[in-house]
Amino acid sequence: MANPPLNSCCFCTSTRNGSIISGLLAIVLSIITIVVIFTTRVAFKTIFFDLDTDIVKIILVINLCMTILISTLMIVGVMKRNHYLMMPWVVLGIMIAIGLLVSVIYTAVVFFIDGYVLSGVLWLVFGLISCAILTYCWCVVYSEYTILAQENERGRYNKQPYRR
What we know:
The protein has 164 residues and is mainly α. Helix content is 74%, strand content 0%. It has one domain.
């Protein structure tokens, strides 16, 4: 198995702690987003299909509930040192990062086409920053996943865990 891409999270804590923080952050942001979806009058749309706003809201809430579940599984996996429980988050995280990047670029282009240049620039800047943070969190979790998978391969107590 490959070496983990990161040795620490934010140069100050372990990938274990960073993974737990990433999972908690995903849960908190999902809950906040669910509250925003139900308390604002924003018209949510999809890129490819023309669906009713209420249907899009329901789909988003279901996806956010799944994110909460998968993030909880990932946190339990980190705490119990079980990389199999982390796998859904690793897969979901990279898919969300790609989806967020596509969504940010698409929405910014729509703002530019409609003449809202400042909104397009702000959306692009903050969206790309969000993509970078999400990708970094994914790298932290993937690093811990790799460490735990290597531990599992060789036996937890046989050798020291891989650290660069």
